[in-house]
Design a protein that fits this description.
The structure is a homotetramer. Chain A is an alpha/beta fold. Helix content of chain A is about 35%, strand content about 25%. Chain A contains 14 helices and 21 strands. Chain A has helices at about 20-30, 50-60, 75-85, 115-125, 145-160, 180-190, 215-225, 255-265, 280-290, 300-310, 335-345, 350-360, 380-395, 435-455; strands at about 10, 35-40, 65-70, 85-90, 100-105, 140, 170, 190-195, 230-235, 240-245, 250, 270-275, 290-295, 315-320, 320-325, 365-375, 400, 405-410, 415-420, 425-430, 460-465. In chain A, strands 1-5-4-2-3-6 form a 6-stranded mixed beta sheet, sandwiched between helices. Chain A has a 6-stranded antiparallel beta sheet with strand order 17-18-19-20-16-21, with helices on one face. In chain A, a hairpin with a 2-residue loop joins strand 14 and strand 15 (about 320-325). Chain A is globular and about 70 Å long. The interface between A and C is large, with 36 and 36 residues.
């Protein structure tokens, strides 16, 4: 069995992940020399305390010292690790269903563990490492003050400034780890939080912890009566944030990234690293502000930050994962709440859409389609053929990037990205254009060509997903 | 200064109540022999931890042992006191604004302290009782398991039973002490809680902790989209519960009392003690179910339960204060959540109004008016004159009760209660009738007569409040 | 591998017992229905916290709730289990070296798990029981008040009474779990404790946690200068107590048992259950006090108490294991400290030897010899032959008991017990007589005969141990 | 009433110091701007938890955050304050009887509060400072990891090195705050601790927490049998250490100071600040090692360190108060244990006297006498007359120091110090000489002259104390 997926460990309890494995994991991570002091936060899942205790026993068996922080958002694991030069651990399955759980690790500079470190753990966990001798065994402590420290540091990082009139913010914590942090941040910055699903509950009884557009968009109607400046929704461990405008609905992640890139570049010029699938709003904003965009493999932009060094990068991100390096080199959804709340209060605007407009963050038509092809083994050939046909299909691109799939950018500002999914047997097509018509036209052409190629190879498109 | 008001101590921080007074209070209550073991819960106010620590130091100075439970609803203080034969303490100002705080005390049988015990404390606190000698000093412990025990006991008391389909319940914890209890109760009983203001926050940033009709009635519109079976709203310490129907709005406290009286009498026949201002819905229901109604002084029905003995009483209550004796002799808003949730899931009805209809709980027109009269010293005479005129005004009553004001009940089912408020310089008139027209007529006649009497005595009606 | 030995689980860390096994043990014990609430105490070993956390994770995986009490003597596990109707667990290897650790279990009446329950666990632990589903997972709490409760209950059980003058007691806690309990008991009862090795230290740096006569007897010289009334020494988890007289040295366990039998019978008549190897001091005392002695298998007297029912038994015991049923059906070294301290203070005697004299507790010459025979497989035959020869060797016994080895009692008050050790390949001979000469004569005769038999069978006595 | 004495606050409970005063103290110290984060340790006294909770409530009322560390030695308050840039607080009455308690404060560099800061507190505490508003109130946390950090830092500061053979150290913690620290330090450095009075007990049942020579000297006899390398004895809060040689008995504080001065100067040259009453052993050692001695007011050497700056000073001290600046600018008895243990293990010597001999620490005859004179108001004149007569009495001194009393040093190496006690109505005479005879001669001459002067002034010597 493979432990690590695209974002740490996420497995089903108890079939794939149980206390026995958590113990082994603690022993393994504790034995590999990443640090002696561990800071463990966990989300609100019913299995999180169990896994924390078992993992802690494993760390002790390796000779390590664990500070169990208790329920706290994942960014706090990274924050603690950096502040106290230890290893940060978050016991969480992020936005997965309640029967899942998992682990994320952070090094003593606050970087999430890279693929290299993950594979080192993966390799050693099945080797049954030997515990240290009885006289070298570690200890466990329970300490919560780091939550206080994080909140105070974040508020002073953002800087509260008196706004004009009281503004309401709806915040949905997904019954997860941020319940005692994000609402408090909003209130401390001068906002008036209306909180929903902000009690800790590992059953996630009202909504899935995944911030899905269809689920969250209903909130715009529900809360229009209280005229919120924004509706925020976290996933279970608050590394992510969805933002909903009470009038216009769900705000695209691309625009959120562009907004934060602008804010970061206003303070300091430098590199902005984003995943291959992000759109041109970001490019325009970064160019305007005098920064440089670098695109990187989807799901691994944080590794690129570490490679380059956080001091060279002002912001990094991909949909749902935003790193603001002047705050820390980790993905942090609570930082997003803090900066957006503060901006909405400071700027005299009524709601988030108006803020993005005022900040001149473009909004272009964008879409994504995913194709499952049968038999699966022809996917590679189909992908290659499709790439070859692209020139005849849409003309000469101005720019081609192949770091993760093939991204073709055209002179009229439109672009297409064709990728093989890393987790599912799909070919994915992403596209953006300056008009809806053009976007539609591009996607239809590509789909037609794709189907043609599949048929030619004797295969069949089994399923198409939109968005 | 007077410490105790109509419901325990509630004073403004720090002008009226501070750490120094909390310490003295701990020393005094600890010295008066109510018990040696103290169980202290507190609400989410910013001053609650401070007052808990100071109070605990005072208890230690008296030789007592304190178990600090931490944030938990007031009913848990009573529950702990009874379960472990100690003194229960809740540090809370209930529904008061955030700059208030206070104390409620419970004896080892779970009864709230009576006026007798309160005046004993009041008398001794200014006497500066001497701490015990150094070798007799008490200790403090931090323990939360009693919260677990309360939740499990309550669920097994109510008994969960599989319902038909998932039902949604909106629950608003007022950012108070119930945040980790009531939502969990709903979910454990099979409901799907949509929680609002259920993160702990002593600033009460979205709404006042007082469950005011005008504030809460908006919820009916806000959440109609999710078709909840009921909308529940607690005050800050969850001894109270407001219930809102998503279609019909705020449910009158009289009908809630009648519903619980019915449930209690279905299990066991006995006495139902209610305050002087409750309406005829209750009388009808109790009579139907074979119970007996006793009316008592407003604000002190719990003392009457203690006098009579909880075993003789099946239910006691007044608006916002409901005691369900088979569960315990204390006011408990969480018990209300549990029983209503369970009933709504078990009975095949869509919402709370339908449940009350199905249970045949009447709904009669009711109103209340309050008159401030100047100069204040003529209030007594005016009250007496008005009572004298009542016969000529509305005819012969069938029944007169004078235990707290004068309540006159008429043959057509209507009734009037005239009272001098205990906390404000007001004369209050309560009335209920079978029709709105009749009710209006009664109130107009009384108001006219009252104004006439006031004028005759050379006074003036300064202010009239409705509802 | 076999988990359970003669007294719970005791294995070497980490070769035989590690966190992984502790987790499995928690899951197994939690799944077998002994109770849902667990109370876990642990001794001061360096591995005890680790094993407690791993075990607790296992209990949570089975759906159980664990109260982690922390460092506390083993008797507290039994006490908690009975008081709160749960399962008591002590993580300890009692008097073993610091690289060992283990587990003892108690049922909800306070009885140590019997061989039947142990074999049930043993059978199921290798079956890899399935954890409960995610929504049924248990929780862990940290709570220490039960230590307070134990101390207060024990003091009120013994009853403190003002003594004449201050008496000094030396108490050695073996750096173990009693460090914060036994000294406090002595002081609360009016004694003046001089504590040694009473800081918690899992390295046991000064002496082995085993209360060995040779180690402890030096204390008589060391502390004679402070004229203690007694010198007490616990093992690591305080189920045991060694008592040393400052003048006469080590007090025989037989006399301790006899003293406690006397005390128990003074309160209530009934059965006294002791192991097969105890001497006649006990018989004389019990007879005098109107009780009845029953002898039972060594190491399992507690099981016999459970069989018979604690209400039928006033005391049970064997060397190092004393159950005082009016206090509880578990072995408790702290109770011994309490009763002895209280008696020494109350009675106007200077030291423990004088107390035993005053209470008329006889002291007869006693000895024990152990023989290792090679080859091991002839031990059975040698044992049988020796038993056969006993009549010709020492004459007709008045009484023969064969419940565990063969015990022969003679008319002159002397007796012999011949046993095959259950844990080592030895034949053991125990004897007592009214005079040293007679004792010596008996032992020499038996040894001569034993050697003769061994030789005849072509074997060899490899080693003889005395005492 | 005056709060602060010669070493922080030390008052009788509850007459002079109770929870009410502790609350006020917390509020005052928290309001004066020394820092927002408080680290509170306390000793084992029965009143320490009470005072800690009340003080903490006061700090919260001032808006401060308190980390309650729990039972820990006073040096940990200073260590925490410096490490985390906060205010360190130790709730302790040091070596006073059990009915006393008190407070010591440390600033964010680890310096004990000076007379200036103390008088600022003293001045403000009776002014009844106003608590901050409800929304600015602070919080309290319970955290123990700083104890772990202190122990690890100290061990790595001293550096453990394998010794030759196991050496035994007797350590007496006075039932105080060091119980879980000093024994562990000895064991971690390779020693074998035999601990006495190392269980926490605020009754101090065996000996007074004051390390009195007469009480402790008996230990030499008691433990000679285990041939300890040294016998260590702390006071209640472990800022002090008494050292006893198992053969030669009590080691003079002067020699301890000289030993530490030597160790400090071996690492780095610099100033050594000592109180006016220390002897010539120190001067000789410091001169030999190339350092410079500065004498300062008794009881306030720590203030002089702060004035000069810790980087300029290698060691500072006075009897019972030793500051080792490369470790920290606070008085620390545990550091003394660590360095002495490490030296005794590393150097191949059998016991502490041999170590001092090997390190060439001189040992000169020394004595002290105190005179109470009646009427008290002539003390000043008598003191002045005596000083005037000194020249005619003992000849011309080589050197006179008048910073605290008058210290006269003579060419033959002898010296005399005449002081008016700061806490009692006494004149004190300290003297040292190279021979006992000379010392005796000096003291007799001075006493004769003193009596003569007193008589001449019409007064009377009421009491003479020796040593």
């Amino acid at each position: 069995m493979k432990l690590f997926g695209t974002a740490g460990i996420r497995l089903q309890y108890p079939m794939e992940l149980d206390g026995a494995l958590a113990y082994k994991l603690g022993l393994t991570v504790g034995s590999l020399g990443y640090g002696r002091d561990f800071f463990v936060v966990h989300d609100t899942r019913t299995t999180s305390q169990l896994l924390t205790y078992a993992f802690t026993a494993g760390v002790m068996a390796s000779g390590g010292i664990t500070r169990i922080v208790g329920v706290a958002p994942t960014p706090l694991a990274a924050y603690s690790a950096r502040k106290y030069k230890g290893v940060g651990v978050s016991v969480t399955a992020s936005h997965n269903p309640p029967d899942y759980n998992g682990f994320k690790f952070y090094d003593k500079e606050g970087y999430e563990f890279t693929r290299k470190e993950e594979s080192e753990i993966e390799k050693n966990i099945w080797r049954e490492l030997k515990p240290v001798d009885w006289h070298l065994v570690g200890k466990a402590y329970h300490e919560r003050t780091v939550v206080e420290e994080y909140v105070e540091d974040l508020i002073s990082f953002v800087g509260s400034s008196p706004g004009r009139g009281v503004k309401t913010f709806v915040i949905d914590c997904a019954n997860g780890a941020s319940y005692n942090v994000s609402p408090r941040i909003i209130r401390s910055l001068g906002g008036r939080p209306l909180t929903i699903n902000c009690n800790p509950d590992g059953f996630f009884p009202f909504r899935t912890p995944e911030p899905r557009k269809d689920v969250l968009e209903e909130y715009a109607n529900m809360f229009r009566g209280v005229s919120p400046s924004a509706i925020f929704a976290h996933d279970g461990d608050a590394d992510r944030l969805a933002v909903i405008d009470p009038v216009d609905g769900f705000v695209k992640q691309d625009r959120i990234l562009a907004f934060f890139a602008k804010k970061a570049l206003e303070d300091k010029k430098g590199r902005v690293i984003v995943s291959i699938d992000t759109g041109r709003a970001l490019d325009e904003v970064v160019e305007r502000e005098g920064g440089v965009v670098e695109r990187y493999v989807l799901g691994k932009t944080h590794e690129r930050v570490k490679e380059v060094g956080a001091s060279q990068v002002v912001m990094a991100g991909e949909p749902w994962k935003l790193i603001y390096t002047s705050w820390g080199p980790w993905v942090d959804g609570i930082l997003q709440v803090a900066i957006l709340t503060s901006a909405l209060i400071r700027e005299g605007v009524t709601r988030i859409s108006k803020l993005l407009e005022k900040e001149n963050i473009p909004d272009y038509p964008w879409d994504r389609r995913s194709y499952i092809i049968s038999p699966p083994d022809i996917r590679e050939n189909i992908y290659n053929s499709l790439i070859e046909e692209m020139k005849s299909l849409l003309g000469d691109p101005e720019n081609i990037t192949t770091i993760d799939g093939t991204r073709l950018e055209y002179a009229d500002g439109s672009w297409v990205l064709i990728r093989k999914s890393g987790t599912e047997p799909k070919i994915r097509v992403y596209a953006e254009a300056l008009s809806k018509e053009k976007l539609e036209e591009m996607l239809i052409k590509i789909e037609k060509k794709l189907v043609e190629i599949v048929n030619k190879m004797g295969g069949r498109v089994v399923e198409i997903t939109y968005g």
